[in-house]
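Recap slide: UvrD-like helicase ATP-binding domain-containing protein, sequence and predicted structure.
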Amino acid sequence: MTSGEIAFEQAYLTDLHERVDALREQAAAREATDFWRGELARLASVEDGLCFGRLDLRDGSRVYIGRLGLFEDDEPLLLDWRAPAARPFYTATAVDPHGVRRRRRITTRGRTVVALDDELLDAETGGDDLVGEGALLAALTADRTGRMHEIVTTLQAEQDRIVRDEHHGVLVVQGGPGTGKTAVALHRLAYLLYTRPQLRTRGVLVLGPSRVFLDYIGQVLPGLGEHTVVTATLSELWPGSPAEWVESAEVKGRADMADRVAAAVHAKVRVPDEAVEVGFEQQVLRLEPRACRRAVESARERGLPYNQAKLVFDQEIVDRLASDLADRMESVVLTESGEAIDGGSADGRLSAADLRALAAAGVVVDFDFEGPRQVLDDTDRAGLRAALLADTGVRRVLDGLWPPLTAEQAITDLLGTPVRSTADLPLLDEAAAVLGEHGVTTFGHVVVDEAQELSAMDWRMVVRRCPTRSMTVVGDLAQTGSAAGATGWAEVLRPHVGECWRLAQLTVNYRTPAEIMAATGDLFAAHHPDLRPPRSVRSTGEPPWRMRTTHAELARVVADLAASHDDGSLAIIAPPEHRDRLAAVLPATVPPDLTAPIVLLTPGEAKGLEFDSVLIADPAAILRAGPLGHNDLYVAMTRPTRHLGLIHPGPCPPALAALTPQPLPT
Ligand SMILES: Nc1ncnc2c1ncn2[C@@H]1O[C@H](COP(=O)(O)OP(=O)(O)OP(=O)(O)O)[C@@H](O)[C@H]1O
């Protein structure tokens, strides 16, 4: 590339930066509202890589592509990468050039242009399915930092199709390890925020498996100028969730738990077999089972949550009691003959108990009446109802028949033990919904990452927060570790969205070198004959290896290997049973700090993450740890971008026998 070309692009870039500076000054001069603060953050986040591409079109025009749009007199100086006209930057090929003659990649450091990389899209250069291969491979082989970065400059065509998919319902992105599912889901979110601005007010949510994972991906959206996205783990969706974390227990995660929770809540309502006596101001009122049943039915007919329906029930019962009481009083004073009837005094007046009841209801009775007339008007009857409702004795009876409930009580009663783990949270959430205990915050779009791990009950919890059912769901069925997790997308989604979901696939593995993917071949083929593993985009020429040791020596061997490691970040992935022993000999923290040079993780914790090198300690123990141990081992093996080694105490698991054996370090 000539220095003249670089100088040309430098001048253009400098002009763009000056324009952004002017916008920043204007934003800073405005009132410090949320909008302007957001605008300032957005303008600050485009500082690096403001402009990263140029398209020279066959009609002689050219467009620049970058992280935001800049215009002069309606003429685009810079196109936001999400604008339709920027799309050929990601999709144009020599075979199908989309009107593009040349694609130029502009690499900058700070505000300086450091390299230009041109692709001429003509038939002679055809046949390559990677867009901007040089820049892509540079990104893929760079040292991992413990933080994921945006990939907006090297997004590939199959990824771009998913990012810009206009489907409004649930879009499932299925793909093997390293195919960019997480990256694509986050870029899609940025795209949707650009094309559907109403989502900014409705809110968007990214759900991930752990805080460590959410921190790992936490820079991607801000790097794309999007600062308003909420991130959460499933447990964080429940206020004040219990600390102890467990994998979603299989039984608690099954869909039929929803019915069991609802049934357990509704079973709290009791219709008595015999009349119940209700004391009120020295009166004894009778509540017949029939009246009770009618009140229960009428409350349930409204379709309200349990605790709201209780209010209807209470009101109906009190209406009944008040009306019985009032009618009885009326019947006393209305007796023309002057005879007392049941409950009244001999002179045809109200009894002392009646008068107390009326006084409690704030009713003043005028006894200077002449002839029969109605004593209690509507206001008096309403007063009587209010007095009954406020009476502690009456309340006790009402609460005995239709007890008020909290979600915690309901689930503790159902399980027979106190709520204590994350697997109980979807049950609590379910109970809260049945009870109407608290409103949940909802979002206009939800991204669910590592979605294969969610149980049927987890899905109910997620869907409750996304009334529009607009979601991007990314996962890999070959990586499911939770016994309550997904074995098929249709079965988890159909109960919530019917057929209103679409499947998109990613097929290229950008992370794991071909040699390592080949080493997972036997394991994968044995357990997922119906799935295709992704195709690695690169190879390193370095095969993964295995090393035999003893149980007694395992920790020492791992520590020695870690101590001699000098090629980028290293993760030691070991089953939970070895965690303490390894943590004692490794310079690694628990919980893990992904930005540290050495990280100790369980296979479950390693999901979604990546490192330059990975050592797996005791693969046989990972395999036998649960019914889906083979998936956990597959996850662990597919984390490295460069090197993989397995240390097995005792014989090698047969699925790994083909790996190159290595002698113990001396
Ligand atoms: N087009 C691309 N350009 C540059 N890097 C990419 C591209 N696509 C993916 N990557 C990189 O490949 C790695 C894997 O991406 P990501 O973690 O999103 O994959 P995944 O499918 O979610 O993986 P897994 O299922 O194993 O968790 C990341 O480092 C990501 O930045």
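The first helix runs from residue 3 to 29.
Residues 3-128 form one domain.
(End of recap.)
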